[in-house]
Design goal:
525 residues, five-stranded mixed sheet, three-stranded antiparallel sheet, elongated
Length: 525
């Protein structure tokens, strides 16, 4: 870095510790790319050192605020309920940040106490009782933090993920060395491991030794290997590797323990739907790894190539890629729409096995005058916000919605009936005839399509294949909400009539069948 830029770095670092003067944001536009990255590395080093110092102070604050001191403790004397709350008020950080500082600071404190005790013992000086329990299997972690080579977040991830050793002993050193090499993996090939890490021995047999416990020695080797990995991977990747390391140790110590851990993770799964004040519903939950892989695979398939991944050269894949890239929906909206569509499809494939005795459906309450007019609002049971009558009509087409029609006095005039829905055999016939969504240019297959009444059932339309047509959810919404209509002519077949704003002259858009089998069947007939 040129002298002028070295001066900028020096001035910036000095301003970070000089709190007497107002802080000035550095003018980094004068730096080239290499200088910019070099400056960021310097500041990252400064931050690691500052965080290490903060963690040490946090541990001291926690010790001076320990529960047995009561109101005489530091935190409570300053009006804070806990040392973490006091640290939050001092740093402006989160509760998680404060807990991390205390946790890692306690490791540093314990190691410093152990070193001081060793020196005192060598000199014959009486040794005081340690303030913090020492975890020798994390010595490599503590040393790296003290040298500002490891962030306190990385250290916390390793500490929490590896956990504690079991009670017992395993003296098979090769077993621990094998684990260290496995954790290091190929991503850090060519990098130098921490001094505490034991390299894999070439003289040891390749067979695995099965221990009955997870020992401190094994955790120490795992921790050292993880410290070596940390500089070249993200915190998220480090956390995954820590979990894997502990899982490997648990599995080799006791197969049942690994199974128990898997069951415990699965028991934590849940899905929660919360209705928001604006009528939207927030979805939150936890997926166990197996379920998450299945859901992620489905969503990735629906949103690729938006999210990257392999590219294919077939005409169909190229066309799909172009449509998806030009889709006005966000990637997140496409992901949610795909998930909802999968629920709809799954419910109709095997309703009694998946969700009880009937497919997923909604119950709609609608006023008679609105139903006759085809306008106004309807209410879906269990939802706070109203929906339009066309939306309610679309649900009645597809999911067996029970439409409860009421008059002005609130008396129920009629209920929907099951004969409104197309049967499975009728849907098979529609699939063979239409080949998927009939809207021009749409490539949705029959499995993704909904059966729509051309002449509405409420207007006397029959539930038979001659009065049915397959539409994907998007184009079904378009039809119900945007004023499109479908016409069928004996010779010309199906055609869409756009609303006046789209086609003022009323030009019909032909909707030929997408079925490849139909033309051949007609010819054969």
């Amino acid at each position: 870095m040129p002298n002028s830029n070295a001066m900028l770095t020096s001035t910036l670092v000095a301003s970070l510790v000089s709190t007497e003067q107002p802080f000035a944001v550095p003018a980094v536009d004068v730096l080239n790319d290499d200088e910019l990255i070099a400056l960021q590395r310097v500041l990252s080093e400064v931050r690691r050192r500052a965080d290490t110092a903060s963690a040490t102070i946090a541990a001291a604050v926690a010790h001076r605020s320990r529960p047995e001191l009561g109101h005489a403790g530091l935190a409570q004397r300053l009006g804070a309920r806990t040392p973490q709350k006091l640290l939050q008020s001092l740093t402006g950080g989160s509760a998680r940040d404060a807990a991390t500082m205390v946790r890692v600071g306690s490791l540093l404190d314990a190691q410093a106490e152990a070193e001081a005790a060793a020196t005192a013992q060598a000199s014959g000086v009486p040794i005081a009782e340690p303030r913090q329990p020492r975890r020798p299997w994390l010595d490599s972690v503590t040393t790296a933090v003290a040298r500002a080579e490891l962030t306190i977040e990385q250290a916390s991830v390793i500490q929490l993920g590896l956990g504690e050793p079991d009670v017992g002993e395993c003296t098979h050193a090769a077993h621990a060395r094998e684990l260290g090499a496995e954790i290091a993996g190929t991503e850090i090939a060519g990098t130098e491991m921490d001094a505490g890490a034991v390299p894999p021995s070439r003289d040891e047999p390749a067979t695995r030794h099965v221990c009955s416990v997870v020992t401190a020695e094994q955790l120490a080797v795992a921790a050292a290997a993880l410290v070596a990995c940390a500089p070249v991977i993200t915190v998220e990747q480090l956390a995954a590797r820590v979990r894997e390391a502990r899982a490997v140790l648990d599995a080799e110590a006791d197969v049942e323990r690994a199974a128990d851990a898997e069951r415990a993770r699965r028991e934590r799964r849940y899905l929660h739907l919360t209705v928001q004040p604006d009528g939207m519903t927030r979805l939150s939950g936890l997926l166990d790894p197996e379920s998450a892989a299945l859901v992620r695979s489905a969503i990735d398939g629906a949103t690729s190539p938006r999210r990257g991944g392999p590219r294919f050269v077939s005409d169909a894949e190229i066309a799909r890629t172009e449509r998806l890239l030009n889709d006005p929906r966000t990637t997140e909206q496409i992901a949610l729409d795909a998930l909802v569509e999968l629920v709809r499809l799954g419910g109709h494939v095997a309703p009694t096995e998946l969700i009880g005795t009937t497919p997923p459906a909604v119950q709609v309450i609608v006023a008679e005058r609105d139903l006759r007019a085809g306008a106004g609002l309807a209410r879906i049971e269990g939802q706070s916000e109203p929906v339009s009558v066309p939306t309610a009509e679309r649900h009645r087409c597809t999911s067996g919605t029970l439409a409860i029609v009421v008059d002005a006095a609130g008396d129920v005039l009629s209920l929907g009936r099951a004969s409104r829905l197309f049967t499975r055999r009728q849907r098979v016939a529609l699939a063979a005839r239409d080949g998927g969504c009939r809207f021009p240019g749409c490539d949705r297959p029959p499995s993704w399509a909904e059966a729509h009444h051309i002449t509405e059932w409420m207007h006397g339309g029959r539930t038979d294949t001659a009065n049915g047509i397959l539409l994907c959810r998007h184009h079904h919404l378009l039809l119900h909400n945007n004023g499109w209509a479908i016409e069928r002519h004996r010779e010309a077949g199906f055609a869409f009539r756009p609303p006046p704003g789209v086609a003022p002259d009323g030009t019909l858009i032909p909707a030929p069948s997408k079925s490849r089998a139909l033309p051949r069947a007609i010819e054969a007939g």
